[in-house]
Design brief:
3-stranded antiparallel β-sheet, mainly alpha, 206 residues, 9 helices
């Protein structure tokens, strides 16, 4: 009987602990996220989406800005997952590298700007909980997490751009030629076929 009672207490205690955690989120991180999201949206309206797009377009021209500044601007202003739409300013060969850099930055930014990826705030919260229990401050951790994230996305951007260039060079279709154009070229290059004594070229009678 005592074993059954302990199991029941443990079962209920698990949900009570979850409720306590939820209350902590409601009184802690959730109001912060709402205020941050409101402030960033207001900042975007004040600056103007057109100006942000212009800065993004300028940042796409330089490799240092392309894989450092552009991913940061995208994740900070547009948040996850809309941040990836900033890649529209880049050539096709550079879009995979930008995506790799941007998607790798949605976690390192959480320590300073949790509004950028609120759906995955638990990643930062789990790390922060352990640091807090050790009696250490979160400010240093957040800054280091952010700086290391910038270094990582820059490296990933460069590596992915190089890999994309190699894969692009191996394509069978020349750059700028679509699959339809390739089929047309192949049809035009096909030799005439003789049928019943009459030679037929592609689309023509001999």
């Amino acid at each position: 009987m005592e074993i059954a009672a302990r199991i029941a207490e443990g079962f209920i205690g698990m949900f009570q602990k979850g409720g306590t955690t939820f209350v902590g989120l409601v009184t802690g991180i959730i109001p912060l996220l709402i205020v941050l999201m409101t402030a960033v949206n207001a900042l975007v309206r004040l600056i103007g989406p057109e100006r942000i797009d212009k800065v993004a377009m300028i940042s796409s021209r330089n490799v240092l800005l392309r894989y450092l500044v552009l991913p940061f601007l995208a994740v900070f202003f547009l948040t996850n997952p809309m941040a990836y739409t900033m890649g529209r300013f880049l050539p096709e060969k550079q879009k995979p590298a930008f995506y790799d850099a941007a998607v790798s930055f949605v976690h390192p930014i959480l320590g300073l700007f949790p509004h950028a990826n609120p759906g995955e705030i638990f990643v930062w919260a789990g790390i922060a909980a352990g640091i807090t229990k050790l009696g250490l401050g979160l400010g240093d951790l957040a800054i280091r997490y952010f700086l290391v994230g910038l270094l990582v996305i820059f490296i990933r951007g460069l590596v992915t751009e190089r890999i994309t260039a190699i894969m692009w060079a191996r394509r069978s279709v020349p750059e700028g030629q679509s699959q339809g154009e390739e089929s047309t070229s192949a049809a035009e290059a096909a030799p005439a076929v003789e049928t019943g004594g009459a030679a037929f070229a592609s689309g023509e009678e001999a």
